[in-house]
Amino acid sequence: MWSAESVVVCALTLLGRSQAQFPPVQFVERPPAYVSRQAQAYIEEASDHIVLVTSTWAFTNARRSNFPCSDAEAIREIAGILAHEEWHMHHGADEEGAYEAQLTALAFVGADPDGPLYHKVKKAKLAVEQASKRTSRTGVVASTSGTRAHPP
Ligand SMILES: [Zn+2]
Question: pTM score, two decimals?
Fold first, then answer.
């Protein structure tokens, strides 16, 4: 088993980034009760670090691979999640912008634009776009819990 830290280093290397240039990353086995059970990552309100959930498909596979960084699809997925959370860290709560950054990162790290990973993120982006359109049409302001989970 590779450590969670070494998996993050794989993902950052793929993104052409170093840990020193990136917000601090913490790990949690499962998302806490106030975060969505499907969450792969989240940011606590007013904190300066990203929390990654390590019981996800991508993390489990990346840690079990024979050689470090060798499960390319899992590492790409984690790279995309990190890019998504980093975007929030710098630009705030807007999900469309964060998913856009995630898709850009996936393309950058070589994810197949017709593949399941890219498709999954595109679908999530579309869902938040449609939700925000519905919200602006009805004038309902979405409640914010202070903690952003992905997917919500
Ligand atoms: Zn987000």
Answer: 0.88
